[in-house]
Specification:
With 424 residues, this protein is α/β, with parallel strands linked by helices. The chain is 39% helix and 14% strand. The chain binds ligand SAJ.
């Protein structure tokens, strides 16, 4: 019986030294690199030849504190190599984007085409006992689809289905700006299509994860990741709704929240100009799409947060209307404090809308040297000093440390719209 049981679980004893990570973006690149620095042989795969070239030369194409050091160490060790096509490995990790398509009614439907294409590209390379991990944030049921796509592709290519392939969803929860620290220290979830898959995925992440790794099934793991970001979105929506209520009632929302949070069981988040980034503003839609009749609060929260930039634009336009020759300065373009990531940023959306309204707009973003495409020719990128000297209407959009020296006195004689409650 022992021999029999060993044969049945033989895949649990296979080594996991050869990894192939598909998608070398914000999740795939740090993950591939950290495995490589822990002694795994990692092939990183990206469809962009420029990305592949950059990484093979030991450099990076995205911004994240200390990621350059990690990638350089991984490449120099000889353990990390990048290519545009996958090769055989013991473990395949899918870390490609899962964007969404906007529907006519404003809701969003997940676009799984990258996950499907990456999965199908594995068909010529999978072998018996391989572990296939989906790291991309995905709607419930995607790990089951990965298995179905791979099997369909093998059949399409006339290849035999190797036995004992294991599948798991192991979502990433690292916070942009603190990725390298959180990669190691965050608890993780390993959700297999089978218990054996969960166990093996856990063993793999123990290579570098020093926190706890919890076993569950794939569907629960998928929904857990979406739930975490939906929870944050709903809570930010509560704060943003409070800010609208306070604007109407002429109450300082920051003071209100500070006071309410003195209650031992109240922890209100901070209002802002809207919710940006690639996760919190996206993931709740994956739940809404799957259960539209039930996910009413989550849908409304998305709408509240997506409305907030329009409210800020209206506030700035009202202030500008008080000046014969208004000059608007937008302080901050990033989607949150102390990062240089301008994608899906409400600050960029607001700046573009103000320019489109015909206002002269100066933009200050200490973390970038060029404007994003949507602002080129519409706003002027200037230093904080220039903006403060030239503008009479100032909107603070991001609470960057670089703006920490500003006080109320800095805005004497100017209109200030402080969307982050920074200026005291
Ligand atoms: N924001 C507010 N008020 C707040 C907190 C945040 O307006 O009180 C805004 C920010 O300005 C920003 C947006 O929300 O525009 C999102 O920023 P964030 O720092 O809350 O989160 P992200 O998008 O950088 O990363 C999130 C994290 N998820 C959670 O905290 C639940 C991270 O752990 C995830 O790994 C990441 O999403 C992801 O990849 O899903």
């Amino acid at each position: 019986p022992l021999v029999h049981s060993y044969a049945k679980h033989a895949h649990l004893f296979l080594s996991m030294n050869d990894l192939c990570v598909l998608g070398l973006g914000y999740i795939g690149l740090p993950t591939a690199s950290i495995f490589a620095t822990k002694g795994k042989r990692v092939l990183g795969v990206d469809i962009s030849p420029t990305v592949v070239e950059t990484i093979n030369s030991g450099k990076i194409h995205i911004q994240e504190p200390d990621l350059d050091v990690l990638v350089r160490a991984a490449v120099q060790s000889g353990n990390l190599r990048a290519a545009t096509v996958p090769a055989s490995a013991e473990v395949f990790i899918l870390a490609v984007p899962t964007p969404f398509d906007v529907q006519p009614d404003g809701s969003r439907l997940p676009d799984l085409s990258y996950v499907e294409a990456a999965t199908r590209s594995l068909a010529p390379h999978v072998r018996a006992g391989n572990l296939v991990i989906l790291e991309s944030t995905s709607p419930v049921g995607t790990t089951e689809k990965v298995k179905a796509w791979l099997e369909a592709e093998l059949a399409r290519c006339g290849l035999v289905l190797p036995p004992d392939i294991l599948y798991a969803h192991c979502p990433e929860r690292i916070l942009p700006g603190q990725m390298l620290k959180e990669l190691v220290s965050n608890d993780r979830i390993a959700g297999g299509l089978t218990p054996a898959a969960s166990v093996r995925a856990k063993a793999l992440y123990e290579t570098f994860c020093t926190a706890q790794i919890f076993l569950t099934d794939a569907r629960t793991a998928e929904l857990a990741k979406l739930t975490e970001n939906a929870f944050r979105d709903v809570n930010i929506a509560f704060a943003n709704e409070l800010s609208l209520i306070c604007d109407r009632l002429k109450i300082d929302v920051w003071e209100l929240i500070r006071l309410a949070n003195r209650h031992p069981r109240v922890k209100i988040l901070q209002p802002g100009p809207g919710v940006g980034g690639h996760c919190i503003a996206v993931d709740p839609w994956f739940i809404v799409a799957a259960a539209p009749a039930e996910a009413r609060l989550m849908r409304t929260a998305r709408e509240v947060n997506d409305h907030k930039p329009h409210h800020v634009v209206a506030q700035v336009r009202a202030a500008a209307a008080q000046h014969a020759e208004p000059v608007v300065a937008c302080l901050g373009l990033a989607f949150k404090a102390n990062v240089d990531d301008l994608r899906e940023s409400p600050a960029v959306e607001i700046t573009a809308a103000l320019a489109a309204a015909g206002l002269p707009v100066l933009a200050v973003e200490p973390h970038v040297r060029t404007l994003p495409p949507s602002l080129v020719g519409k706003a002027k990128l200037v230093s904080l000093e220039e903006a403060m000297a030239a503008a009479n209407v100032i909107v603070l959009l991001v609470d960057h440390r670089a703006f920490g020296s500003l006080t109320l006195a800095s805005f004497a004689g100017k209109a200030l719209i402080d969307t982050r409650g920074q200026i005291r």
